[in-house]
Amino acid sequence: MDKGRMALMIMGALAVIVVIVASVYIGERLETIEDRLRFAEPSGMEPGQEIVIMGEEVQLQAVYVPVYSHVYSDGGRPFLVETTLSVRNTDPQEAIFLSSVRYFDTKGALVKDYLPGPIKLAPLESTEFLVEQSDVTGGSGANFIVVWAADTPVNEPMIEAVMIGFHGGNSISLIRAGTPIEGVGLDGTVAGRE
Questions:
Q1: What are the Cα distances from residue 158, in Å, to 34, 59, 85?
Q2: Cβ-based burial of 120 (10 A; exposed 0-12, middle 13-18, buried ≥19)
Q3: Is residue 145 within 8 Å of residue 87, measured between CB atoms?
């Protein structure tokens, strides 16, 4: 074998090695970014801490947020979606407290209570709650009821659901804002129902 052919084979082998190493490096780097952004359940306040509502300026509000585990298309076929419930403290100065985040199905039955205890959201802090695409227990008429409180006057938080789904070559995305409702207690229960 002549030297030119040998050099060409060595260069080819080196090029293959460089491509393999580069693809592994890029793959690990992308995986690291995705892992860093992966959803994590919100953490609550320290065990034993409770929301203390005092004073004359207390704000307390329940917010109804419509969501869907699926929507219908193509003659009534279900198109599954994944839901992210986003709660954003819009106040630049004061904290708010989430006392209840409850998920209900199409018939109004409680599916899941997302908070084992209250969550404090610092000024401009946000938190999310996830209903995975594979969880169809809520149905096409599912909803969240979120109860928040503050011990001083604050800007109302932004509470909305973002739903997204992919199937084959099709995709869908929906955003639904919450609306304040009456008749829900600090713990998220409805008087006379639970």
A1: 26, 15, 11
A2: middle
A3: no
Helix (H, G, I), strand (E, B) or coil at 150: strand
77 φ, ψ to 5°? -75, 140
Give the DSSP letter string of 31-47: HHHHHHHS--PPP-SPT
> Quick check: 165 and 80 in contact, CB under 8 A?
yes
3-state secondary structure of 68: coil
| pLDDT tens digit sequence for 131-179 | 999 999 999 999 999 999 998 899 999 999 999 998 888 888 999 999 9
Alpha helices in the chain (DSSP H): 3-37
CA-only gyration radius of the chain, Å: 24
Cβ–Cβ under 8 Å, residues 165 and 180: no
What are the sequence ranges of the domains in the chain?
1-38, 59-181
Report in angstroms the alpha-carbon separations of 2 from 5, 7, 15.
6, 9, 20
CA pair distance 75, 166, nearest whole angstrom: 18
59-181 folds as Hypothetical Protein Tm1070; Chain: A (2.60.290)
**Of 139, 66, 134, 84, which is closest to residue 106 (Cα–Cα)?**
139
Q: Look-up: residue for tokens 């109860």?
A: 147
Residues in the chain: 194
Quick: pLDDT tens for 62-96.
Answer: 999 999 999 888 888 888 999 999 999 999 999 99
